[in-house]
Structure formats: structure tokens, C-alpha cells
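Wed. Picked up where I left off yesterday with DUF3098 domain-containing protein. The coffee machine is broken again, so keeping this brief.
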Amino acid sequence: SPLKKRYMKRTFGALLTIIGILGIIWGAYAFLAGGDSVGNVSVSKFSAIVPFGIGLIFFFAGISLVRTTSDHR
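Structure written out below (C-alpha cells, as returned):
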């Protein structure tokens, strides 16, 4: 049904947004750690930019999906 599809899109958008926020936080923390290990993962400053960038993409994709999914019939 159309209503179910809308709720699925919004849920997926919210999930993308949350994953994006986590990626942004992890990338920023890894970048500020400056090449030390983060948890069990050794991260250089350059490679810390990758999860940050992917987090930004996921965040804005999720926000866009939530905003463009209308509440109207």
C-alpha cells in the first residue's frame, strides 16, 4: 500500500541519517586522534576523511529522503 511505502521510506531515511551521524562522529574523532588507533583500528589522518565523507553523504541522503516523503495521500 502507498502508506506502507511512505513509512518504509521515512524509516530508511531515518536509518541513513543515524548511520551518517555515527560516521561523521567516528571520522571526526579518528581525524582528531591524529593517526593513533581508534578502538582496535589503526587510522591515519588521511584515511579518517573517508568515513567522515561517507557519513556526510548518508546524513544528507537520509535527511533528503525524510523531507521529500510527503505525509499527504
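Quick read: The chain has a mean pLDDT of 85.
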